[in-house]
User: Fold these one by one.
Assistant:
Number 1:
Amino acid sequence: MPHRVPTSTGPHSTVHERGVIPREPTRALAALRVRDLQQLALPRLEHIWSTSPCAPLPGGTWQGTYLCELPMSAPKRFLARAMFKWRAFGLDLDANKWWFREPRRHVAAFEPVPGPSRWRDADVVQLHYEHTGPHLLKHQLYDELKPLNDHCILAIGGSNHDALRGTWFFFALSPFVVS
């Protein structure tokens, strides 16, 4: 059974190791932007992930921002930083593909599936990579998105394993703006 945190107690609160914490107010979620998430520590990102409703997944092209690492091995940390912290990346949610360096350079196809998080007690959009090649790669990839509003998506990047081995880092997505 995967490790999942925390447990919901109803529409307005959640049980956390430090007691009951109120859910994020809807107005506050509507105003969140990636720059706001960049200022938050891991416990606050976990709180937003676990207590915020999953908004509908928007379309369009989205730019990624590496937010915060989760516990992982040194080789996974280096790989995550090399692929996501030190280079431009994002998602094309119309084509259902990842991109690196620039939006027209698609590298991996995914199928977005609304459902429960396999890593946390939350509703999310799961990204499944069964239609991506090569064979070895498609069975290793798995990510989750939590759309918060029309301008901000919180996400966990990782691999196709349980929460202790699969979660690598939090990242956020904002609409891609051509400069």
Note: The two ends are 45 Å apart (CA to CA).
Number 2:
Amino acid sequence: MRVIECADAPVSSSESAAQAILRNSQVSGVAMTNLLTGGSDSREIDLLVYTESGRLIVVEVKATGQSGQLLALSNGPWQIGGQRAYFWGGSQPHRQARANAGQVAKRLRKNRVSPPWVEWIVAIDGPIQLSEPTKVDNGWVCRIDQLVSFIERSPEKSFRSPGFEGELSRVFGVPQVTESLSHLGAPP
């Protein structure tokens, strides 16, 4: 997968790890990092992944030093090892991921682009126990090392439209997207 850095901003070691995992994967597509959605309510997206199969996925990367079984609740604080989970930004990271996916869809619509279904996943870097990517709310949670297997899954919904790569490039101001996706699967 081609990884494109969109903003000259510091990244956490967990975000760097997620980028390396995607960069070294065999998934055909592009991942934009540190992408700003723009506008007065702009949000920073850790990773926005667009795959050859037509999946558009917002990835929120979170780190934790806590260990144990992860319990990802839709309507309450997450727990790790029976204790409240602590992540930068709070104990319910799915809310941030869901809001980021909504901002991506909103930005596309505002620019007269009919967005595909924008999926979201929280990828956790830390010693948590989670046997496979797990559904939470209308998104997903996984360990960082499960991210590629999640992306490679058959999508619940996908969208492949000629020219969508160009629209992503135009809307988010990242010209390398069109170049990367014009020959998907080729090494960067």
Note: The first strand starts at residue 2 and ends at 5.
Number 3:
Amino acid sequence: MAYYPDFYHPSNIIGYSGNLHNKPTVYFMRRTAYGYRIGRIIQRSSNSKRIGRAEVREYPRYRIGNRGGRVAEWYDKKIRKGRRAFVPAQRLNMSAISILTRAIERYPNRAIPSSFDPPKYWET
């Protein structure tokens, strides 16, 4: 059984970072009664244990965008910065969305350890 199949769904894709045509990281979000459910699928990493579906988490507040040309996620009074720029799904055509959707099929399992919050990427 896939990890969180109802969440890791094309309708919850909010964007990506990295090269669209070379295994980008795909970001997911859904509003909930509590706030925001968030996650991502990492398709490319020097640490193979990080590849796959990140742990799904919920926060009362969440925002994603770019800071200094790199993806930044704001939640729980912290900022998580990535290495590449974030490209929001609103800017993408159906062909690009189709490419991102392949990550859902390609990586059905949760990455272990959690690929969500390696400490070196956090700021407070």
Note: The first strand starts at residue 13 and ends at 17.
Number 4:
Amino acid sequence: MAADYDTAVHTEQGGAKLVVASGGEIEFQSGSTLDLQAGSTMSGGGAMSLGALSSTTQLGVPLSSSDTSVFDVFADDNNVALTNAVYTVIRGRMMFFQPPTAGSLYSVLGQIKCYDEADFNPGVFAGVRGYIETVDDMDVKSGAKVWAVDGCLDAALASYTVKSGGISAAFHAELTGAGTFTQDSGGILAGLYIDETVTSGVWGYGVYIAADSATYGIYISDCA
């Protein structure tokens, strides 16, 4: 059947291709599902947005006790041992072909923003979380390296030089903004905080620096 080019949304290739023309819109109503079967791919050069950005009005995708997440990606090994490769469930990659002149860029950004007097009550809140969970007994065998969060600087081919005045680190903690941070008596405001909440066990090392991996194990500049 010939495509109806008078509509913003139409089919081509005998119905095998759905085209959304400029100004067109596809709306998935409550309870609907977009199902990508194994082997299918969603690709393109455009941008994807869920909800709308606003710091004053509720325009985002609403969360509730029955709808606790907005975007889920679930992967598994199909009960077949994975072979030697680098696997990612979600990958954000930015390629520079020219040196940027200024600005900031983050391949992946996680943010929690609070409106006026939207205080943090008891609970756990984090812009980004990485964690390893086990179902039953699990051993970290010789040669294995298991990180909940991994920071890496990779000099793949040539040199990586930090020039005078430059700073580069695998992890960075900072206080930023025009406001004021204070720490009341009994409160803790820390760049790195280590604790445990398990039934049994403690960290073997709070901080471990492998031999010959750093010029200075820990360097503390002038502090008050």
Note: Strands lie at 9-12, 17-20.
